[in-house]
Known about the structure:
Elements: H1 11-25, E1 31-37, H2 41-52, E2 58-64, E3 76-82, H3 88-103, E4 110-115, E5 124-125
Antiparallel strand pairs: 1-3, 2-3, 2-4, 4-5
Amino acid sequence: MIDPPYEQPDDFARLADGIVVAHRKWSTGIYMLWYPIKSRDGPDHLAAALRRADIDKVLRAELKVAAPLEGGGLAGCGVVVINPPWKLAAELEILLPALADILGRDAGGVYVLDQLDRPAPRDRVKPQS
Length: 129
């Protein structure tokens, strides 16, 4: 489980670099990276870096409960799981839509569930209303 403090502007880049190094040393390990969603910059950088790293079996799940707040307040969070347990994606396909509906404020409940080891067009994203 990796959960940096996310206080430095380069924390997402360092996280991506670190997980690539760790995966090279132990490619069969299960890695879980948690991150806050205050804006799209950091999470999108992390996803792009992991796509470029050519790592197999990379699952991303995000849950936003509100639109991004001015000043960078927490709007949601996400996890990336490398080598996820067998049924995790199937369970998240059931849980994430329900959580987005229950926890979403002002129609801000949105989730993302996708495989970062596949091309981006295959992403499953709840449409924003």
